[in-house]
Amino acid sequence: MLKKLILQVTLLSSVLMTSATYAKQCDDFTNVELRKLRSEQTINICEFKDKPLLIVNTASNCGFTGQFEGLEKLHQTYKDKGLVILGFPSDDFFQEENDEKDTAKVCFINYGVTFNMLATSAVRGDDANPIFKHLNAQTSSPKWNFYKYLVSADRKSITRFNSRTKPLSKELTSAIEKAL
């Protein structure tokens, strides 16, 4: 019992120190702790410091949902070169599942997504999550699901791509390769 308590305290202090470390190393909009989809686990987006980010607002029941397949191919192609893809499920356009387990099923089971998916959150308006508040202020709010935001490794450049831009399009892959 005492060993278990010591282990839990050690683990908790390690997690807190890790978050504090990211906070000290990161002074931009990515210094935010977010919960992963269908998990108690959180990640600080600052963990991906010095790597380009492809941030996408997603939905499970949209005409563009099939883009998960292309996003996963991008992830597999560019993850070892430094690209980080972050999916943000949102019901802002009324096309997301009501239950997070169903959203997770679409992402992980139906499409085999292995890139980071975050818990369902707003991506528009006053209640948008902190990442999208910044993206929206710098570019504009997504007008539909599967808007893509390519953020440079130094966080100084953000390029927005609309829903019709397919993940494997020449336009997006060229921008990714330039960012890498």
TrEMBL record:
What superkingdom does the record give?
Bacteria
Q: Give the record's family classification.
A: Belongs to the glutathione peroxidase family.
Q: Which PANTHER family match?
A: GLUTATHIONE PEROXIDASE
| Entries under SUPFAM superfamilies matching the protein | Thioredoxin-like (SSF52833)
The stretch of residues making up the signal peptide is 1-23
Which residues constitute the catalytic centre?
Answer: 62
For whether the record's keyword set contains Lipid biosynthesis, the answer is no
Pfam families on file = GSHPx (PF00255)
Q: Which UniProt keywords apply?
A: Oxidoreductase, Peroxidase, Signal
A biological-process GO annotation: cellular response to oxidative stress
PROSITE patterns assigned to the protein according to its UniProt record, in alphabetical order: GLUTATHIONE_PEROXID_1 (PS00460), GLUTATHIONE_PEROXID_3 (PS51355)
Q: Protein name, please?
A: Glutathione peroxidase
Q: Record's InterPro entries?
A: Glutathione_peroxidase, GPX_AS, Thioredoxin-like_sf
Q: Extract the GO molecular function terms from the UniProt entry.
A: peroxidase activity
